[in-house]
Amino acid sequence: MEKLKVAVVGAGIYGRNHLNAYTWNPNSDLVAVCDMNKNITDEVSREYGVKTYNDIEEMLNNEDIDAVSVATPDPYHKEPVLAAIRHGKDVLVEKPLATSSKDAYEIIDAAEKAGVRVMVDYHKRWDPASIAVKNKLQEETTGKPIRGYMRMDNIYDVALNWLKWSANSSPVHFVGTHCYDLIRFYMGCEVTQVYAVGHKGILQSKGVDTWDTITAILEFENGCTWTVENAWILPNGFAKADDGCSEILCENEMIRVDSQKRGVEFFDSNKLSTPNVCFIQNANGRPTGFGIDPLNDFVYCIQNKKPFFANLKDGLEAELIAEAVHKSAETHQVVKIERRK
Fold first, then answer.
1. Phi-psi domain of 148 (left: phi exceeds 0; alpha: psi -120 through 50; beta: other)
2. Domains of the chain, with CATH numbers?
């Protein structure tokens, strides 16, 4: 089998994981990297020995590419995804698919017209804990899910220092859509309506005009209700950059997941750290973990003509929920999920 020739668009914080995954995957060949920042592409060229571009159209016109992996910031997925689709390339895009349903539908329509496939990297689906929960929920003895709770928060530094574009996003889009997608994965059905409340002012006072925190109640077709909490204002002294936990009450069993504590603790003179040892690890130079697994699956699914684990519909549904959550938090009204006929 010939190697899949992949190009990566966006070589920032998370884009480096894409570069490492395709470099190490024995079935893929990283042939080109595009980023608008020339300092970044110069560094990538030196470190990876790969051809780089600062213009995606130039790259797509000049390079022999099978697929494109998009790791640009959250609000800027649409244009590179559409460019790859226009050139007939299958695409992997980091979550969220888009930050508006209008853009998500535009991507869906373009992909269907071009006959290409798009995968969305909702990597929490690959987390061993998530897979264990999904399997437990499918056991007949567990019974019907009745009520669920999920929290996923970030420290201040994420919004104030890590993401230069945080004012164009929110904790809902950055971590909330992870929750919405994972809960849909668990439930196997769709959200019908949401009610949300939130708080603004803290991040605004620090120069970032976005939500500090939003709490949403999601109602599902199967009758299960979920409470989802997302924030960008955890203290920077927290044990790691994010916090997360889940709990599901079923007819016969209760499921609890602590995603913050993975059983490993590091102590120094300043604080306790609790690394997510399952996410991405350097194993003798090779990247492993559920942050890398989706990228390897992308290669496998294209080469073997298999369906994607998280596809365009999954990307759309997470965005429809996010839009409804924002609208509800702004209007203090219950918002029904409206889908295109």
1. beta
2. 4-121 (3.40.50.720), 125-281+318-336 (3.30.360.10)
